[in-house]
Amino acid sequence: MVAGILDYSVYIPKYRIKAEEIRKSWGEFLGAGVNEKAVCFPDEDVITMACEACMGVAKRGLVDVDEVKAIFFATTSSHYVEKELASTLATVLGATRAFTVNLGYSTKSGTSALISALKYVSDSNEKALVVAADAPRSSIFDPLEHEAGCGAAAFVVQGGAEGAIAFLEDFASASYEALGDRFRVDGEKRPRSLDVRAYNVKVLRQLATDCVNNLLSKLNRNIDAYDHIIFTPPIDGGRASIDVVRSMGGSPDKVTKTTMSSFVGDCGCALPLISLAHVLENSKPNEKILLISYGYGGGCDALSFVTTEKVLRAQSKDFKVKDYLESKKYIDFKTYLRYRGLIE
Amino acid sequence: MAYIPAPMYWGRIPEKYRLVGYRCKKCGAVNFPYRSACRQCGSKADYEEVKLSWRGKVYSYSIIASGGSPPEFANFERAVGPYPIAIVELDEGLRIMAQLTECDPGEVKIGMEVEATLRKVYEDEGIIRYGIKFKPVRVKQ
Fold first, then answer.
1. Domains and CATH numbers, chain B
2. pLDDT digit string (tens) for A281-322?
3. Looking at CB atoms within 10 Å, which of A95, A245, A253, B117 has the fewest?
4. What is the pLDDT of residues A188-229, one digit of tens each?
């Protein structure tokens, strides 16, 4: 299987709130590891953010986005529980003959989409678009709300060897039932968690260790062979992921420098892909990237990428990840409550 | 409520989602939004679709103050307060009317550079009506 990433873009809403502002106004801030986070404007949702990320790829000009043959869209927080979502993106992009795949249910559905798209194109030289957008929400009394951010990432992938800025070397998964670490019940807007920290950490550790060990043995290498490690779930303020990597012999620094939840919040299934775009923008040719993604309820994906010389060309393009991270406007707590619709 | 039935909205998806205009095959004038007769030559609609530029400048504007919105915009207004609508002159010269988003009333200026963005316009009967709005240019090339 030969397939790789041609280009990427992200969308992070302009509005941000600092943890300190919530702590000051609400009396406490429960989002461990989050310093500030992105907040959707009231007319934004996962579809509009996904469109912005796709338009970002189009504006960068490396790839004709309307040529994609398939669109894989992932979210866990759509307004609709049943309705085509990727078709909305196809319409905006003018790719109305694309095959669409709608993924959800899991916070790892972003990497499920990326793996599925790379497999889909691997037998041809067709292009596919992968988009993940998420905006989890909860009650202001719940730690989930305090850590909840929002954002989107889009990638164009292609089969064959030409043009890729990074190749997928291989991937592995671990899928083993986990109960109650985080879930959302039909008809409810807010995810729930039993909030048993030690249990959540234990489940994450078991699945991630199994998943990553499987990938490493397939590739016959150690975890310290990686230049960048992305492992985003904000469980225990991100400390749980760092502990997993450390216990496997990896350097914690490689995880912390890719951790984006500290300044955009928990963007659900989009966070691993936003982080991947950020790493690609800051990597050198021939570097190895390990992307680990956790799906609450018992799923883990690990993907191994290696960058090519062409990553430098992508980095020279306008509409960078950095631009979306740095162009921001801070809001106060009252505005936050209004924008998030937390008062009903 | 300025009720637009979903089937009618669906018929206008290209202009609402992609900012597609309609070039009159007779006189070449671009119409936006769709008109059953060309705004320039008055001939019966016979158009080719053209994708309009997603960039432009504020030609003129007005502020919708509290209570000034149609009911379908009430939730949006409750969340953001008074908001501007504008006549935007697109890069190709065509002027169209659109809501400005992510823009405080005090921020909007004639001549301000704006870019198109797909946003929720309103929700009705559980259906989200998406559409093009304009916002101040955020990331410059």
1. 54-136 (2.40.50)
2. 999 999 999 999 999 999 999 999 999 999 999 999 999 999
3. A253
4. 989 998 888 899 999 999 999 999 999 999 999 999 999 999
For A3-165+313-340, give the CATH class: alpha beta
E-strand stretches of chain A = 3-11, 15-18, 36-39, 70-74, 99-103, 127-134, 151-159, 166-175, 228-231, 288-295, 299-307, 329-330
**Which candidate, A115, A80, A34, places its Cα nearest to that of A301?**
A115
ipTM field: 0.95
Tell me the per-residue pLDDT of B119-135, one tens digit each, with 9 for 90 and over. 999 998 899 999 999 99
Per the structure block, which two tokens stand in for A272? 């691993």
Contact A323 B139 (CB under 8 A): yes
Domain map of chain A by residue range?
A: 3-165+313-340, 168-310
Q: Residues of chain B whose C-beta is under 8 A from some C-beta in A?
A: 13, 17-18, 51, 54, 75-76, 78-80, 101-102, 117-121, 123, 128, 130, 133, 138-139, 141
Please, what is the angle between helix A86-93 and helix A46-60, to 10°?
Answer: 40
- The CA distance from B55 to the nearest CA of chain A, in Å, is 12
Residue predicted with more confidence, B67 or A55: A55
Would you say A233 and A240 are in contact if contact means Cβ atoms under 8 Å apart?
A: yes
pLDDT over threshold 60, residue B95: yes
Domain A168-310 has CATH 3.40.1160.10: no
Residues of B in contact with A332 (CB under 8 A): none
Tell me if A65 sits within 8 A of A54, measured CB to CB.
yes
Chain B residue whose CA is closest to A61: B141
In this prediction, residue B2 carries a pLDDT of 63
User: What is the pTM assigned to this prediction?
Assistant: 0.97
